[in-house]
Specification:
- By secondary structure, the chain is an all-alpha fold.
Length: 99
């Protein structure tokens, strides 16, 4: 299948938004240890994706970032692959995917 299922960008955006929420919460909103554990869990699951699925996920994130009008969310979308360990360099680098 060469076309992306319409559900994939929605779900990818939700994953990013949950991590963004956890990252931006104050300590009185979400327990910091719980936020870190959940964020690490998301990164672990995404890191275990087969390479072809990880590449598709990274492409969807890039497309979402390109279309995003909110500068803060766009920046978070662009930095998400590096922050989760899916690429070796941040958005300003080449961003080769890890094996």
């Amino acid at each position: 299948m060469t076309d992306t299922d319409p559900l994939v960008p929605v779900l990818a955006g939700l994953v990013v938004d949950v991590v963004w929420f956890l990252d931006s919460c104050e300590d009185d909103e979400v327990d910091p240890d719980s936020a870190v554990k959940m964020t690490e869990s998301v990164a672990w699951v995404l890191g275990r994706l087969p390479l072809d699925q990880r590449d598709r996920f990274l492409k969807v994130l890039a497309d979402l970032a390109e279309a995003e009008e909110n500068p803060g969310r766009r920046e978070f979308l662009e930095s998400f692959p590096f922050s989760c360990g899916l690429v070796e360099e941040g958005p300003e680098g080449s961003g080769r995917a890890e094996a």
